């Protein structure tokens, strides 16, 4: 691949966020010199890897901690990914990108049933295919949800056929392949790690283990590392990260589709749910759990010091963290989630959560999924001392930083759309973004 002396745009990070942007820039703009660097030897090996996330295309219909506004925004972006997946499914590069299942959110007991009934009317307007069903219908779709359940227990569910389980690592590859088909001159460098970035007069100098790259515009799509890089340039000083690792348990097929439970509104992470594995419906995965770790990447101890550098060692982030963690709801949630990872006891505690979905599940059917599950870089705002919901985007002088907890994979094309719009402005409208084509194809 040719290395131009200076890029118009350089993307740092080859997860689903960075590759979706590369695809969008190459297909829908006439920007000339575009590069991407990724520190590992392949794309999508960190949080976008299928074994590190819940593989769900989140639309906001069965995620009961989303407000209607949040659901509307997530749906718009998830629809883009859905359209991309559907348009790719017959292409060789689109093979095994996703599987489709039914999905439901279960309400159990009087309070939850009332809550879900109240939620249904506005959400059914936004999601016309969402149906409210009772015990009998639930049993037809998911027999094991009813097996050994107390017949007196009140139960309803919101159900839809449109449950997408996605291999987001494969999606990264699909974006890259399609971008290269369109623009073989794209400059892509694997095994290339950003070590330092500095602003020169009219460009950024990006120092890597493979030498220096220069670019007018830079987009950092490096997950939790995006905040570390932002801080090195003086951005995002009032933010820190709470790195919430998620583990999973597996069982032989006990569900036909995705089954979610009602979420605790205060928590920005998904409640425990059951999903079929993207490449094997014979396995049902339960999770994710949520426990804080002091690493920017799970299973990578070398990111321990990077975590603390990102966190900042001042008093302010520590006060924020203490205030957030010692909130009654969050503290008990985190405490119990810590226990779920313990050998022997973890499984015995976790099965109580799983039995809210599958009451008849046997202890011998449940297995801790070792080495599975990434970590979500949840944003801590040191000004409001609150944990923020969803992704954060910081925009600076011709630079964008994307920090992407869940549902960051579902929103990758929506993010790419917003970033592309910004990039065109950064490049003083010298190039064009064919929004009509993007919208026609993906919205
Ligand atoms: C347990 C769990 C469950 C989740 N479930 C879902 C779900 O069901 N649905 C959903 O939509 N989202 C889910 N998410 C969130 C989703 O996985 C992420 O939001 C998404 O993968 C983020 O993609 P990304 O490209 O921004 O980050 P990543 O996939 O983490 O990619 C960042 C890339 O940047 C690279 N990088 C970092 N630093 C550098 C550097 N210095 N130089 C060069 N490259 C660098 C990394 O190597 C990596 O490849 C889940 C996350 C977790 C942890």
Explained architecture:
The relative contact order is 0.19. The chain starts with 6 loop residues before the first strand and ends with a helix. It is built from 13 helices and 20 strands. Strands 1, 2, 6, 7, 8, 9, 19 and 20 form an 8-stranded mixed beta sheet that branches. The longest helix is centred in the first third of the chain and has 21 residues, at 68-88. Helix 2 packs across helix 12 (412-426). The protein is an alpha+beta fold. Bound molecules: flavin-adenine dinucleotide. Flavin-adenine dinucleotide binds at residues 12-18, 37-40, 45-48, 52-56, 58, 168, 193-194, 221-223, 225, 246, 288, 373-376, 402, 404-410. Flavin-adenine dinucleotide (FAD) binds at residues 12-18, 37-40, 45-48, 52-56, 58, 168, 193-194, 221-223, 225, 246, 288, 373-376, 402, 404-410.
What is the topological layout?
Layout: E1 7-12, H1 16-28, E2 34-37, H2 68-88, E3 98-108, H3 110-126, E4 131-133, H4 135-141, H5 143-146, E5 155-166, H6 168-182, E6 187-189, E7 194-199, E8 204-208, E9 211-220, H7 225-232, E10 239-245, E11 249-252, E12 258-261, E13 273-277, E14 280-287, E15 291-293, H8 304-311, H9 315-325, H10 328-340, H11 345-354, E16 367-368, E17 375-381, E18 386-387, E19 392-395, E20 399-403, H12 412-426, H13 435-442
Parallel strand pairs: 1-2, 1-9, 2-6, 3-12, 9-20
Antiparallel strand pairs: 3-5, 4-5, 7-8, 8-9, 10-15, 10-17, 11-14, 11-16, 13-14, 17-18, 19-20
The structure holds flavin-adenine dinucleotide (FAD).
Flavin-adenine dinucleotide (FAD) binds at residues 12-18, 37-40, 45-48, 52-56, 58, 168, 193-194, 221-223, 225, 246, 288, 373-376, 402, 404-410.
